[in-house]
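Example 5.3 — PXO1-129
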Amino acid sequence: MTATLRKMGLCVNHKKVLRIMRQNHILSKVRRKKKKYINGAESMVAPHRLERQFDASRPNEKWFTDVTYLLFGERTLYLSTIMDAFNREIISCVISESQTLTLAMKTLKQAMRGRKVKDVLLHLDQGSIYTAKEFQA
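Solution (predicted structure tokens):
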């Protein structure tokens, strides 16, 4: 919250922001890291081709994708995005109630819609939805 206010041009102390949030009962919950589990499904780990060269010389040369957790009280939603490395534009975003292969595929299909995407390099983490055989195909 403090960082957002500072980006808006306000000079605020993090302790003051915390105090005001407490007074208005709008504190966020601290969430614990969930345990990782292996469901036994076979996965494929992709080779690392980017070699820390994150800049792109043209649009649709390199894309980055990831899934973010959004907590709304007791409800969790998943935001899947794809960003073009050329201009850092978010070219696709999909929200779902579950983090599944379908979420990743919808995001990728949305990004490809209406774009000339020949030989685009899609950089992603090695999460379970991205290492599934169906996503790699």
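Remark. The chain has a mean pLDDT of 79.
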